[in-house]
Write a structure and sequence with these properties.
- One of its GO terms (molecular function) is FAD binding.
- This is Cytokinin oxidase/dehydrogenase.
- Its cofactor is FAD.
- By secondary structure, the protein is of the alpha/beta class.
- The protein has two domains: 81 residues, 2-Layer Sandwich (Uridine Diphospho-n-acetylenolpyruvylglucosamine Reductase, domain 3); 102 residues, Uridine Diphospho-n-acetylenolpyruvylglucosamine Reductase, domain 2, CATH 3.30.43.
- The protein is built from five helices and nine strands; from the N terminus they run ββαβαββββαβααβ.
- The strands form two sheets. Strands 1, 6, 7, 8 and 9 form a five-stranded mixed sheet that branches. A four-stranded mixed sheet has the order 2-3-5-4, covered by helices on one side.
- A hairpin with a 5-residue loop joins strand 6 and strand 7.
- The longest helix has 13 residues.
- It is globular and about 50 Å long.
- The N terminus is likely disordered.
């Protein structure tokens, strides 16, 4: 059936759960033996660029920045943290729009979620039909989700007023905007979430 006007969609989002500790720690030696070690940077110039967020109230330099290429890479890091004699502080960051240091992880590992979008396959997949939905990576910007759905004459039921935020970032804060009185917050329009833990997919 061809759609003649914008229809609502439900979002399925991949979100990462992490355990953040603000206790000072050094990176464990075994980290460099993992098969993801080439995706981890301890370059001071890189870590310094991730030391603050949009709020610019705190300055906490991570011990390393992790550029995963898949959710399994993140699972490997989380599993390593679970099995370490001293848990490794981990946090994730989309585009750094948090305002009160929520994603900062002093001396821990900061996961740069935007690197998941640098793959050979799309992380925004729109499905049409009686119940259309979009399967979207947490690192994707809402503006890109909107543009992908508009190509199919669809659009998300609920959008934040500013669209250059990541899907995972707004959902972690419920996703509230001026449209909430009609459709509820963004999180109420999510069909399912894929949560990355230490278990491999």
């Amino acid at each position: 059936m061809e759609l003649s006007r914008h229809s609502s969609i439900i979002l399925s989002i991949t979100i990462v759960t992490t355990f953040v500790s603000f206790v000072k720690s050094s990176l464990p030696q075994g980290l460099q033996t993992l098969n993801i070690s080439s995706e981890i940077s301890t370059d001071p110039n890189i870590t310094a660029s991730f030391a603050t967020d949009f709020g610019n109230l705190f300055n906490c330099t991570p011990g390393a920045v992790f550029y995963p290429s898949s959710p399994n890479d993140i699972a490997t890091l989380i599993r390593f943290s679970y099995t370490s004699s001293k848990p490794l502080p981990i946090s994730q960051r989309g585009r750094g729009h948090s305002t009160y240091g929520q994603t900062l992880v002093p001396d821990g590992i900061l996961i740069d979620m935007s690197s998941l979008g640098h793959t050979n396959y799309s992380r925004i997949n729109v499905t049409e039909g009686p119940f259309p939905y979009a399967d979207v990576g947490a690192e994707q910007l809402w503006i890109d989700v909107l543009n992908a759905t508009l190509k199919r004459d669809l659009m998300p039921r609920m959008l934040t007023d500013y669209l250059y935020l990541t899907v995972g970032g707004t959902l972690s804060n419920a996703g509230i905007s001026g449209q909430e009185f009609k459709q509820g917050p963004q999180i109420s329009n999510v069909y399912e979430l894929d949560v990355v833990t230490g278990t491999y997919i």
